[in-house]
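Quick illustration, no need to memorize.
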Amino acid sequence: MADPVISAVLPIAGKLASAFIEAGKPATIKIAEKLLVKFGVGLSTLLREQAERHRYVKTIISGSTPIELTDLYVNLSLKRDKKIIRDDDLFKLLDTERAILVHAAAGSGKSMLLRYLLLTANQHLEQRFPILIELRDLNSHPGKSFLEIIQECIAEYIDGFSRNQTDFALKSGRLLLILDGFDEIDYDRRREREREVNRLVERYPNLQVIVSSRPDEGNSKWQSFFAYEVQHLSKGQVRLLIDKVPYDEAPKKLFRSKLDTDLFETHGEFLRNPLLTIMMLVMLETFADVPAKIHLFYEYAFEALFQRHDVSKGGGFQRKRRVELALDDYKRLFAYFCATTYMRKLFRFSEGVALECLDQSLKSAQIKADKSGMMRDLVECTCMLVPDGLEFEFSHRSFQEYFFAYFIARIRPNEIPRVMPLLSERSSSDGIVPMVAEMNAEKFEEDWALPQLDLLCKRVVGIDSLLEPLTFINAMFGKNGMHILAMPNVSFECGTGEVFELDHVRVMLYHIYGIFNRIHARLPDESEMDAKVREKILDGRIGRDDPRFEPVRKAVVKSKAQILIKLGPSDNDWVRETQWGRFVAEEAKELVAARDMIRERVRQRQTGLAAILNLSE
């Protein structure tokens, strides 16, 4: 029996095949007919295999048992500015907002959302063929462009599919590119890949693209994209997810009972996304309670998985582990494994590579155990790893991040000063550094946070941020500059040309200590502020005689080209009126206040420790 998901999209494959043949102008009708069959069969096979690969998922509760995605999926809400939409509405928006960035924190269901869009495309697309590319795969092909990746993806099913045919597919608007996991691209290649995707969108005005990523407070410039943020689950969505999860009814009943009382009010932060909600279900089965801190949440969740009974065989059956280690040794060994794989940028790996990493971890942790048995336990008992074809991956990246944080904060805390710069640079959206800060606040603040805040303060010492916002931005960001004002097809930037190494550190520390939240809470609405400045530029009240602004007033609406205007000291007067002008004025105060607060905490700890141990200060 034909699969309705695939059958409904097969006409799109036929239309796309016809378009390719027409573009190629074959010599005879007979050749055209043969090519039509070849292209039609190839595209249909691509669609079928793509759908089959992504229609099933494996979770921390299902282990190696696949679950049909549509049986588990709960529709999500997304927000841009003040507009909130349902995930299905993304298809409608593509006609006007043809390049969409979907961003959310770990565990929010971004990959599930993009797979859901692929599987339901048949209900919304008539002339476009969806292709989903998992961006982490690009790490294995650093020298290949996106055009080459797309071409090879299709050429795998249509022998001889050419660069010209790929170019036509992109120009004609026949493809919908679904790009999953931008944050999984190697950190040192992300900006290059980001520029490449933006150039694709600019070069092919009929191309539609959806990209998913974790949020980035750094200098990301997705100027061609409309950014939508996945919203936290509502109480109703949490209940629906629990109803759908294939799990024993007893813990699900306890979960619903707590949800009906005060669980959503007391632990709403942990119920914000599907992953944490499912983890809480497993946790309640074992502990009947939920901790208040995120790192303890992961710790409890792992311990619940470690001790979990196999609900598919009745509540009394506990699967025997091949490696009989005490819980603390098991956690320590897995922490070494997670540190090894994270530092090697391994999120997906063959069994051979996994065993190699386990062997190294066993030697480093000085634990005696069978690596093959440990590998099987990680898949079958604790569900930390899940098989995907001939490879394995973490059931969720956040577990790898938690155990690497555990490794740094509890096993190797003296490494904090050395490893933190690398971690903050690799990804400001990873959860590792904030969890290290929670797990070992003393070492984190004394050995790293306070010295870094001191360095940030030294960058901007003596600068009046209220009067000279651009001078402050230059001192804080160096050559990366900052996007000052949002205008169609226009970027206002400033930069000194000097490279600073503290950009990612700044973002990380501001998140951990709530600086971004406090600043934004005191600022007026960004769109209203910048709209007034925009009007002044367009009517000549700002930069009337400045030739830099002439292209803006002439072409800001008509031109598709991106206009870049470099700002200098003379622009301080009007930049003060923008959102960024107000932001840096607030940032200067918050930065000093955070530094002084941490300094006092460190002083009090040192004094208290000296008194406890009867040491002289």
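The first helix runs from residue 4 to 7.
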